[in-house]
Amino acid sequence: MTFSAFSRAGGTHIALAAIAMLAAIAILPGIAPLYTLINVTLYMSMGVFALSLALLWGYGGILCFGQSAFFGLGAYAYAIAAINFGDTTLAAVFAILIPALFAAGLGYFLFYGRLSDVYLGVITLTVTLILFKLINSTGGDAWRIGEARLGGFNGIPNTPLLTMPFSGIPLSPAQMFTLAAILLFATYALCKVLIVTRFGRAVIAVRENEMRAELLGYNAKRLKLAVFVISAGIAGLAGLLFANSVFVSPTMFSLSMAAQVLIWVVVGGLGTLFGPVAACFALQMATAALGKLGLVDPNIVLGLVLIVFVAFVPGGVQPALAALYSRIATPMRRSHTLEEVAR
User: Which residues contact 234 (CB under 8 A, 6 or more apart)?
Assistant: First the structure.
């Protein structure tokens, strides 16, 4: 990361995120009970998942209803590779590579076929539901890849935990928490820097006006495919972390999972990165609390939250707070300037 790229990407924001990550790593494992540590690790995995769609939809302008397909593929690729190879180092690479390759094949037909946004959304959602149905139907002993049984709706509960590279020693919950925090920060920083590079600016130009961008010499199809593949790789990384927090199951491909990530991005703020991550954490904690109370279905609450934000806060929380701060700060700056002139 060059200094100029760091500055353009909002070096202060990245630095603050780094401080928050280091503080969490230093403090939380020593004071939090085990279940809290595992839950926060789970939330961090979903935060990486939220970043994958925040980049694709917010900056690439590609509304993918099937982002959970790459999320689930990453988890299953990791579990199957880890069981067969007996080591999780190469399996972790597969968790990112397989969703990216799948996205490259799917995206080629979507973007080079010049499908409209509506058809793209329908096809990606259909692919997710097909994978969900397919994985649910793999319950027999015949459904296996090498030594790994797919398990049908039961999933793969014996998913191997990540180990120290080439050592076979599993990571402890505290070490897994530390790794998840580092990867969440690294993904956030990567996305922040990516959007200010020449590639990122070209992607945003295509989002704003595809025809004009092509007239200026940019290959819109190639740019869309590239950001689609990158977001799929990030979703696969999230699947890897999720598989080590819970276990691999077909629910990762489900419609509810596909809807949740859309809600996080809408609530956090389309065209932002921190907002969707913050919304992801807040809404997951809220739904967990509602689930414990048992008074109302958390999915109904999520639906109401989505309706409220679409109707009254369409820009999302982060842009709304930024606008509010600007309204408050601007008169204060003017008053301070007038006082200095009067002196």
Answer: 48, 49, 51, 52, 55, 187, 191
* CB atoms inside a 10 Å sphere around CB 39: 16
CA 62 to CA 71: how far, in whole Å?
A: 17
The 10s digit of each residue's pLDDT in 100-152 is 999 999 999 999 987 888 888 899 999 999 999 999 999 888 889 989 999 89
Q: Which residues fall within 8 angstroms of residue 273, CB to CB, at 6 or more apart?
A: 51, 54, 55, 58, 188, 191, 192
Q: Are 250 and 136 in contact (CB under 8 A)?
A: yes
pLDDT band at 301 (very low <50, low <70, confident <90, very high): confident
Query: pTM (2 decimals)?
Result: 0.91
Mean pLDDT of 158-177: 87
Contact 23, 40 (CB under 8 A): no
Largest alpha-carbon pair distance within the chain?
Answer: 85
CB-based contacts of 250, cutoff 8 Å, min separation 6: 72, 132, 135, 136, 152, 153, 155
The residues pairing with 145 across neighbouring beta strands, listed in sequence order, are 148
Token readout for 194 is 């990516």
Is it the case that residue 53 has pLDDT exceeding 90? Answer: yes
Tell me which residue of 226, 228, 224 sits closest to 206, measured CA to CA: 224
pLDDT value of position 78: 96
Compute the 3-state secondary structure of the chain and give helix, strand, coil in percent, each to the nearest 5: 75, 0, 20
Number of H helices, E strands in the chain: 14, 2
Structure tokens at 57: 């939809």
